[in-house]
Every structure is written in structure tokens, then in C-alpha cells.
Amino acid sequence: MLYNKEELSDYPSLELLENQVAYSLACDILSLQGNSIVKDQRVDIYVTLTKNFDIPFVDKLVSDARVIAIKDNKGYDIDHPKSTGIPYIIILALNDNSIEYLAKAEKVGSIKLIASSNSYSDLEASLNENSMLLTYLN
Questions:
Q1: ∠ CA(26), CA(16), CA(103), 5° rounding?
Q2: Which end of the chain has fewer CB atoms at under 10 Å, N or C?
Q3: How far apart are the first and last CA of the chain?
């Protein structure tokens, strides 16, 4: 029997390009900008660090990360008929060189996904090598 790939539990991994990994983040309607961030859209990942700073330090860590899935708390895609319709996790396709920094940023700061009209460049999920965040997250 053939299945639609979106019905497979591991289908997000089928959406990855070479040297990419699937990275999941907790999300809600607010973090998805009122559900305006959707599957196949690209987002920029901003990190805010507050510890050891007089004012919060904010910078872009990754540009053009592709959204490969948004799931509810039962694991259904948000647009699946059995879904609650409430986003719970977002799965992003990221280059593996940014995972270490993003995982550290999750532990010590906060992460915000920003949809941008500039987020459709030729490079996908590129680490911002010029970000001062890299210094603090090393």
C-alpha cells in the first residue's frame, strides 16, 4: 500500500537537504505570529541573551531556516483533520553547523522566529558567521 508522504510519522526528515538536520522548537500561536508562519516558509532565527548584560542582547543567529512541519500536541500536522489546530512544536530544516549554537541559545536565552520578505535567498538555513552571539555561545 502506498502512503502520502505527509502521513508518515518521519516525513519531516524526508524534506531535508544534504547536511541538514530537523530541529524542533516549542511553539504557540504567539511565537508563530498568529499562525502566519506556515510550512515551507522560511524564517530568521533571533536569539535574545539577558544574563550578564545591562540590556538584552539580540542578534540574528540563522537566516532563512525552512519550516518543514508544525505539529500539535498529539503529533499531528497542524492542518491534519485530527489535529487540535493549536501549534505545539515547529520543525525547522537547519544546517548541522548551527545546531550547537541554537541548542546553547535555547538553554541560556530565548528564541524568536521572524518571517521576513528577505528570507528567500539562495542560501538556506545559513549560520550568521558575523553574529556576536557566536562569541557568547562558544
A1: 40
A2: N
A3: 48
Model-level pTM? 0.86
Whole-angstrom CA distances from 35 to 22, 38, 65 are 20, 7, 17
C-alpha cell of 94?
537547519
SS3 (DSSP) at 1: coil
Which set of grid coordinates corresponds to residue 117?
520578505
pLDDT digits (tens, 9 = 90+) for 21-32: 999 999 988 888
Place of cell 544534504: 18
Tell me the average pLDDT across 123-137.
92
Residue 78, all three cell numbers: 497542524
pLDDT in tens, 94-111: 999 999 999 999 999 999
- Note the helical H segments in 23-123: 99-108
DSSP 8-state class, residue 118: T
| Cell reading at 30 | 504567539
